[in-house]
Write a structure and sequence with these properties.
The protein is α/β, with parallel strands linked by helices. 31% of the residues lie in helices and 12% in strands. Strands 2-1-3-4 form a four-stranded parallel beta sheet, covered by helices on one side.
Length: 111
């Protein structure tokens, strides 16, 4: 299971979920550089979702993960959907948790 946190969250946001799962699961918690106290590195400027999705796809291949379940919260959900859209053969199941379906709604009415 790959767990991707939201915009201002660290991997610690998933600790309750990890504890609930218990033994028998191989869990990979992602910490995105530049968010929730992680130092900014290569993603200091420009897009975040696509490069992070590509990095997770590389990680899946490198680790030999067989279609892991991917769970993303908020921004992590966007990254998870991008990962699944770009690399459908790499992702088993995808769950998006508490994500704004239309980002523009945060700023005003659609249209």
């Amino acid at each position: 299971i790959i767990l991707i946190p939201g915009l201002s969250s660290s991997p610690k946001v998933w600790q309750g979920t990890i504890d609930h799962l218990g033994a028998g699961w191989r869990v990979h918690s992602i910490h995105i550089q530049g968010f929730a106290g992680a130092p900014v590195e290569g993603n200091a400027e420009g897009p975040v979702a696509a490069p992070v999705a590509e990095e997770i796809a590389r990680y899946i291949a490198e680790q030999g993960l067989d279609k892991p379940a991917v769970v993303g919260h908020s921004m992590g959900g966007t990254i998870g959907m991008m990962l699944a859209a770009r690399h459908p053969d790499a992702v088993g199941k995808l769950m998006v948790v508490d994500m704004v379906p239309f980002m523009g709604a945060m700023f005003g009415q659609p249209g």
